[in-house]
Amino acid sequence: MIQQQTYIDIADNTGAKQAMCIKVLKGSSSRGRFKRRIGRVGDVIICAVKKAIPAGDVKKGEIIRCVIVRTKQVIRRVDGSYVRFDKNAAVVIDKDNNPRGTRIFGAVARELLFPRRDNVLGDFLDQLRDVVKQLVRWKDLIAFHLEQIVQTLEPSGIAARNLGECLALQLHGLDQAVPVRT
Known about the structure:
The protein is of the alpha+beta class. It has helices at residues 117-153, 163-171, and strands at residues 7-10, 16-25, 28-29, 37-38, 44-52, 63-70, 75-76, 82-83, 89-93. Strands 1-2-5-6-9 form a five-stranded mixed barrel. The chain has a two-stranded antiparallel sheet with strand order 3-4. Strand 7 (75-76) and strand 8 (82-83) form a beta hairpin. The protein is elongated. The N and C termini lie far apart (77 Å).
């Protein structure tokens, strides 16, 4: 659990060694009287660099964005196992969520590879919206083709009781159909 004022080790080669969390973005809020955002593995946080090496890209006092890769708090996995790390650690990222460094030191939790359930649900809803948009387009296309089928059958003297018969006649490829008695 990472919250404001938490010191975090930086696990990449950007030059920062230790940072302090200023803000947790998209974290969950804890229950209770005081609502404080809590960051877990995979959450993005904003940090202030407290210790840095002299020749690094990131300098002391700089404000950076990081993604949490290790926490001391126990992580429960779906299979029932628990994972805990010795220290809290994060990796420096840019505004496009790409790592600024070229290497990551130490272990990285597997939970970073798979998005959380709420992210999967959001992706599913986006895909569902795309499918609905395609269905609306297909509905318009089908209505257009059915209208053309009816127009091609009416001048030839074929009387159909409903649109289904028109479609059936067209699908069977009948050029000359027997008129239906009404």
